[in-house]
Design brief:
By secondary structure, this protein is an all-alpha fold. The chain has 41 helices and 2 strands.
Length: about 950
């Protein structure tokens, strides 16, 4: 240490340095933020070239454009449109079959009747003809039912159907078409068995896939017969829109044979299914193949089983789409719907089928039939002109004439639902009152009527054309009256289902006076039986719509029963609504209304209490924590600063589990203290209370690095308020936080290390303003930092070097006759005044500097990385040169550091060269020849 006995701090004039390093200011001629002048147009001289722009409209005068347009003649466009239409229909049908399979849960085992011997593989000796089985069933039905039923797993059943499909295709390829037909007939007989209701939709999807395959193979065979003769001579190429007049007699004969074979099948259902499979083959025989549909519709009436007949009609609709589009009308579809209305009415009114079998679950039966109704209804409206909707409704027997489209003629509810779903919005809007009448008189067990009211509400909201307010009021009044009078809507779930749709209309047309009536209905029903879990989601949807509608939260809170219903809610739905309320509250400016603030405190408390802190994930906690913190930030009591501090104390007790909020509370408390300092009145006791609040709150935060930053922030506020003792204690707490920092999980992220370095530098810069204590020693805190650096084993040499440089800079700054800055604009005296001309003060600073300087040189050489060691040597050299006068002893240290840098860095390194130039500048004139300017 003796070699540095003569070391002296370099005197600094901070004001002069700031002025010399400031950039010169010159008045700008133009505002740099103003709109720039438009650029001048430049004419390009040269040959003009035509560039094709794919986004530019077609030039009518361009011959190339006309040529391109003429390329697509009417015939090619027609073929392309028909082909794309067929592909779209096939895609829709494939999606619909997948929907059928996925919608209904299938039992693991399926009962298979004796008629389904194609599924259960049995020996030839035990095979019986269908005629013998029919005779056995007539003689002893009960014995036949008991002996003939076998159990098979659903997986085996499906696997066997896939095997049958492969067998049919294989037989056809081997020209064994008789076997293909026989196997397909056996598959169609499976559709007669409806004993396992839930399995029937899956069976339909798999079986019709096989039928479609056979139908396409038959069609292609007949088409091939029409285009190529027996000896292989090409007769013609059939166009896509061919007619029966284009077909040769040989092909027609083959086609007739197929229809004769199918017509000879004894069972009605298989016979219908197979004729539908080859329905598009009628194009080879008759001009209007769609005429066969009315006959097939009549035949389907002979199927007594409602489930089997419904799915048979569904398959007919699918097969009819393969016929030429222009030849098919919706008449047969309307007949199908009318027939299903009759059949469903019988199902709802009777407990037995025509076979005498008990209907154990008619509700399940209707649910299974519903997809067929939906598909048929979509097909009706697919290409229906809106002008023909009146005729269609008359044919559906929903009205007597087109003048009054919806009267008092009842309709099966499930059919009415899918009719409303497909009706154009304009038609629903124009006939809303009549539709309500229809819904009222169509009250049956096939479908929940509240879903029809709900659908009506959504349809009215979809309309782009505004209705007259009087008509809307009439509709809403009618719906409210229905729910007030009818006892079946006393259930909260049904009430909410309808209200969810009509709230949109009420808000859309500004009928806010109806909201109280609606919420009163919710409150009355909720008070009787409470709110069930399945009702919370709908109630959540209603509240979100209300909150979104009102600009001010006060308007929503003033609604009758709003707060009451919210209090009755629970679980995630209430949390979602609270989050939505907080989002609105925190984005609309500061909160100053005491009533609103109190309500928001209560809902924040509810949100906080719903959080399971021991088990909640960090990501799930972020949004509630951020919103509650944001709410606390936005509360402003203005000049009532004591009330603001009381509010912060209440929040600390109410939301103790949220670390992010505790940080917000400390920031708000420090902000309050600063606000009080700016006030002309004397608020010293209040400032002390704010500082004390922060001192108590910070230790409860779990992260040490966050504690450290908050302690420093609060210490700075205390200094500004002249509370020296508080700032000393806070700085001591900050040093304690530094001591608690250690490796986490065996490693430390670089971003954390950089943050800690920045914080330590902030401690050093803050200590410049802190008046020194004679009892504790002026260098108490710098010494604490120095000893702490040496005690932390995880600290890397590069990190340690920069902190030691910060400590040296601090001691050099404290030695100046005028400090660069002071606390509270100089009202708090600095060390240059407290220890003016005090030699012991300077000696204490020098003593600490010597220890740090020696340690700094040693740490530089501990760095293993050569490049990093060179940079560290230059950083240390810069720090020493700016802090001390370059006497021979200090010059020797700097020279050694530069030599270290030369060994580690390139000779062209700019940092090395600039450091050498700076040293030559600081050296006395007699010593400047020692160091060359270049390496």
């Amino acid at each position: 240490m003796d070699q540095w006995a003569s070391m002296e701090f370099r005197p600094r004039n901070y004001s002069a340095e700031e002025e010399s390093h400031s950039l010169p200011r010159v008045r700008a001629e133009n505002d740099p933020l103003s709109t720039p002048c438009s650029s001048k147009e430049v004419d390009v001289v040269g040959q003009k070239e035509e560039i094709y722009d794919p986004l530019r409209g077609i030039d009518a005068n361009s011959p190339a454009s006309l040529k391109d347009l003429q390329y697509f003649d009417d015939n090619s466009v027609k073929v392309l449109s028909e082909s794309s239409s067929v592909q779209l229909q096939e895609k829709e049908w494939s999606s619909f079959k997948k929907f059928l399979i996925q919608r209904f849960s299938v039992p693991k085992t399926v009962s298979v009747s004796a008629m389904s011997d194609v599924i259960v593989k049995i020996g030839k000796a035990s095979e019986r003809s269908s005629t013998n089985m029919h005779l056995e069933e007539l003689e002893d039905p009960q014995k036949f039912a008991e002996e003939g039923v076998r159990m098979i797993t659903q997986k085996e059943y499906v696997s066997r159907l896939h095997e049958l499909k492969a067998e049919i295709a294989h037989s056809w390829q081997n020209d064994d078409r008789v076997t293909s037909l026989k196997l397909t007939i056996k598959v169609t007989r499976l559709m007669m068995d409806t004993s396992v209701l839930q399995f029937y939709p899956m069976l339909f999807a798999l079986a019709t896939d096989i039928m479609d395959m056979l139908g396409d193979m038959v069609f292609e065979r007949i088409k091939c017969k029409a285009e190529v003769s027996e000896d292989g001579t090409r007769i013609c190429y059939l166009p896509a829109d061919f007619t029966s007049s284009d077909i040769c007699s040989d092909a027609k004969e083959t086609c007739n044979n197929w229809f004769y074979k199918i017509g000879s099948i004894q069972e009605l259902l298989p016979r219908i299914y197979l004729e539908l499979a080859i329905l598009h083959c009628w194009r080879f025989l008759i001009v209007q193949p769609a005429d066969c549909l009315k006959r097939l519709v009549t035949m389907i009436r002979g199927i007594a089983d409602p489930l089997a007949s419904a799915y048979c009609r569904l398959y007919m609709v699918h097969c009819s789409q393969k016929l030429p589009h222009c030849s098919v009308s919706v008449g047969y579809l309307i007949i199908c719907i009318n027939d299903m209305k009759v059949q469903l009415s019988r199902v709802m009114s009777a407990r037995e089928t025509s076979h005498g079998k008990l209907l154990e679950n008619p509700a399940l039966l209707i649910i299974l039939i519903e997809p067929t109704i939906e598909y048929i209804m979509k097909s009706i409206f697919k290409d229906l002109n809106q002008r023909h909707i009146g005729d269609m409704l008359v044919d559906l027997e929903l009205c007597k004439d087109k003048k009054e489209l919806f009267g008092t003629i009842p309709c099966v509810s499930v059919i009415l639902h899918h009719l409303l779903k497909e009706l154009p919005v304009e038609v629903v809007q124009s006939n809303a009152a009549g539709i309500i009448n229809l819904i009222e008189c169509s009250n049956d067990t096939s479908f929940d009527q509240c879903l029809n009211y709900r659908l009506l509400g959504f349809k009215l909201c979809e309309s782009r054309r505004q209705m007259e307010v009087t008509n809307v009021q009439a509709v809403v009044n009618r719906v409210i009256e229905v729910f007030r009078v009818s006892t079946q809507y006393d259930c909260l779930e049904k009430y909410l289902t309808v209200v969810d749709a009509f709230v949109d209309i009420v808000l859309q047309y500004g009928m806010d006076n109806y909201l109280s009536i609606i919420l009163e209905g919710v409150s009355e029903r909720a008070c009787i039986k409470g709110i069930a879990e399945n009702e919370l989601a709908t109630l959540e949807s209603i509240f979100i719509k209300l909150l979104t509608h009102f600009n001010n939260l006060e308007d929503a809170f003033s609604l009758s029963h709003f707060v009451e219903i919210l209090d009755m809610m629970y679980g995630s739905s209430r949390s979602v609504i609270i989050v939505h309320i907080l989002k609105i509250a925190t984005r609309s400016g500061y909160l100053r209304d005491p009533t609103t603030i109190q309500f928001l405190i209560e809902i924040c408390q509810a949100l906080h209490d719903d959080i399971d802190f021991p088990n909640v994930k960090e990501d799930d906690l972020q949004q509630p924590a951020r919103l509650i913190s944001r709410f606390v930030q936005m509360v402003d009591y203005g000049a009532e600063m004591e009330r603001q501090l009381t509010f912060l104390v209440e929040c600390r007790g109410a939301f103790s589990g949220i670390n992010e909020l505790k940080e917000t509370l400390v920031h708000k408390s420090n902000h309050l203290a600063i606000k009080a300092m700016k006030d002309s009145k004397n608020h010293l006791s209040f400032i002390k209370a704010c500082i004390a609040f922060s001192e108590v709150t910070i230790p409860s935060i779990s992260a040490p690095i966050r504690q450290l930053n908050l302690f420093l922030e609060t210490a700075e506020v205390a200094l500004l308020g002249g509370l020296i003792s508080h700032s000393d204690g806070l700085l001591d707490s900050a040093i304690t936080c530094l001591e608690s920092l250690d490796l986490m999980n065996g490693s430390r992220v670089r971003a954390d290390v950089d943050g800690i370095l920045s914080t330590v530098r902030k401690v050093c810069s803050l200590f410049v303003m802190v008046p020194g204590s004679v009892e504790r020693g002026v260098t108490n805190i710098p010494k604490s930092i120095f000893f702490l650096i040496n005690s932390l084993s995880w600290m890397a040499p590069r990190f340690r070097t920069r902190i030691l440089c910060a400590v040296i800079t601090l001691t050099a700054t404290l030695s100046q006759k005028k400090l660069p800055y002071h606390a509270n604009h100089g009202k708090v005296p600095g060390n240059e005044l407290l220890f003016f001309e005090d030699q012991s003060y300077c000696e204490e600073l020098k003593s600490l500097s010597k220890c740090v300087l020696q340690n700094l040189v040693d740490v530089v050489h501990q760095e293993p990385s050569q490049a990093s060691r060179g940079v560290m040597a230059l950083e240390a050299c810069d720090c020493i040169m700016s802090s001390f006068k370059l006497n021979p002893e200090i010059s020797t240290i700097c020279s050694k550091l530069i030599e270290t840098a030369k060994l580690c860095l390139s000779e062209n390194d700019k940092y090395l060269q600039s450091t050498m130039e700076l040293m030559n500048k600081y050296l006395p004139t007699t010593q400047r020849a020692v160091l060359p300017l270049t390496v």
